[in-house]
């Protein structure tokens, strides 16, 4: 399951169906969160709707190149306070878990899910009237797999799962290792 999830860029431009969206958001719904606070929030728009153009317009040019053929775009946010105004210091952590559930579910449905930090977060906040207590975290492209041949050459070469550092490089017992301080 973990090795099968990766971040392709080739998509065919077909809009996601209501059923597909419902299933990926349902997966996010079941993520664990501190005190079951469920701080994740998703603002989404389907390909072919005015809302899609709005989210698309926030993307960095490098992401626009391949997101033109996404089936939906999703802005991921986290509320940083509960209904009583108490701080939720782990809201970004919890929302990360929700995004991973969404991505794994997308993959299980044969869909692409690709996270992006390359977008204008301050403009997203302004244009979508995001209040101060919500944190704008990430954009996600969802879509039906497409033909990599349609990608620009540079991206086509990167259209393969990539690798990771060995587990030993990020686990330790005891204090924070000197070698991690860079
Ligand atoms: C928070 C976040 C931001 C990312 N931003 C971008 C981005 O702006 N553009 C892009 O093409 N990929 C982006 N990626 C995809 C990562 O480069 C990718 O997840 C990473 O290289 C690991 O590859 P994999 O997801 O295929 O396993 C982002 C991923 C995450 C989780």
Write structural notes for this entry.
With 182 residues, this protein is of the alpha+beta class. It has a single domain (18-180), classed as NADH Oxidase. 31% of the residues lie in helices and 16% in strands. The chain contains 6 helices and 4 strands. Strands 1-2-4-3 form a 4-stranded antiparallel sheet, with helices on both faces. The longest helix has 18 residues, at 91-108. The protein is globular. The two termini are 32 Å apart. It binds flavin mononucleotide. Flavin mononucleotide is lined by residues 6-7, 63, 115-118, 138, 161-162.
Topology:
Blueprint lengths: L17 H12 L10 E7 L3 H7 L4 H7 L4 E8 L11 H18 L3 E5 L4 H7 L6 E10 L9 H5 L25
Antiparallel strand pairs: 1-2, 2-4, 3-4
Flavin mononucleotide binds next to β3.
> How many beta-strand elements?
4
Euclidean distance between termini CA atoms: 32 Å
* CATH topology value: NADH Oxidase
Helicity level: 25-40%
**Tally of helical segments:** 6
Average predicted local confidence, pLDDT: 97
Strand and helix order: HEHHEHEHEH
Strand residues, percent:
15-25%
Name the quaternary structure. Answer: single chain
Which regions have little confidence, pLDDT < 50, spanning 5+ residues? none
What CATH architecture do you see?
A: 3-Layer(aba) Sandwich
Strand order of the largest sheet: 1-2-4-3
Number of domains: 1
CATH superfamily: NADH Oxidase
Level-1 CATH class name: Alpha Beta
